[in-house]
Amino acid sequence: RAQRSAANILYLALSLTMANSIKAIHASFLHCLANPDVGGQDVVQFIEHGTMLVANGKVIKLGTADSIDVPNNATVVDLSNKLVMPGFVDTHIHFPQVDVIASYGTQLLDWLERYTFPEESRYSDYELAEKTASFFLDELLSNGTTTALVFGTVHPESVDAFFSQAAARNLRMICGKVMMDRNAPSNLTDTPESSFDDSQRLINDWHDKGRLGYAVTPRFAPTSSPEQLAMAQKLLDENPTVHLHTHMAENGNECDWVRELFPDAEDYLAVYEKYKLVRKRSVFAHSIHLSDNAWKRLAKDDAAVSHCPCSNLFIGSGLFDLRAAQKHSVKVGLGTDVGGGDSFSLLRASNEAYKIQQLQNHTLTPEHAFYLATLGGAKALDLDNQIGNFEPGKEADFIVIDEQATPLISRRTSSQTHWRDRLFTLLMLGDDRSIEQTWIMGEPYSPSSL
Fold it and tell me: What is the pLDDT of residues 253-269, one digit of tens each?
């Protein structure tokens, strides 16, 4: 006999030791095994009548229903008329901007002055931050997002509150305190030294505690002095497993401002390169106005970008060059960028991402869009060993899709027999109504369970 696979060994071991905790989930399953932009449609696995075994919050095994031996004492969950996908991964979002979402009539720099800065000034209040974080996380989960890379505010209290709420829900989340010591209101600025001390304390308290991670978070180059960017580098060097999360090249006027503030830099990316902030686990939101050379350098340093289509259209920032990212094999995930983005839904973000590519005579395939929202986002965050698909040992964060969620979706899919066609319909017409359930570590989530 051929040697048993690692998946079968894991299955047998867990079956013997944890049989009482095993769930057998019967459903149709869709997930990516790799990047379909490289491997083609074949790396997207669809199992129409499947069974997934889950124990202690981890995937044990996934296969066709007739290929999985379900232990006699396993709990059977019948979702046979539903589609199960990995939870979505949002690679850029601001939790303190919930209450300015869908604000009228500005582009980036005016948006910050008119809406963002006044709203964020309230977040020295821990109780306010905690209430907002609770609402924010429940809203993410209702939209099928189970992991996110999140901006706090300059106030460490905002991040303490966010992490406390994420921990209560057992979520895999990454967050960071904004570092901002210039070109912002005085009640929202810190100093290079205080930003280092506050960030290091938050790292000590929260990073790698349970499923939580920390991101060093300079807002963007214009609001951090050279001295503060050097402190961000020090934080990364002294804490090598944390993330770097910032904005880059979102808006044309912003890029002009960066050239004025950093006249010796070759380009926007070079500002971050000078302080060695471009590295693995660095995520640069937006990255719209980049040269071909900048894309090459991002790839060389194994950095990632977050494509935020809803925000880019709502604030009028520009059209993301997905082809350039693909050409240079730069890691890309999708972000909603709430509150600049006008929706928490990565289904809506996928819809807008498709349109942005259409405007540039490029077609975003449904399988590639699905990858960006799941495994691609996990890879961008360097979390693909934990989340992103249903490989054995991955954390069982997943969503249950109702393919008849609305009369229009039901009508549209009624004659579609191939998963690719139904996926595209979901990405174009779906929203939070399509998310019937969200599961966290193998358990269905309900806000009332807290």
Answer: 999 999 999 999 999 99
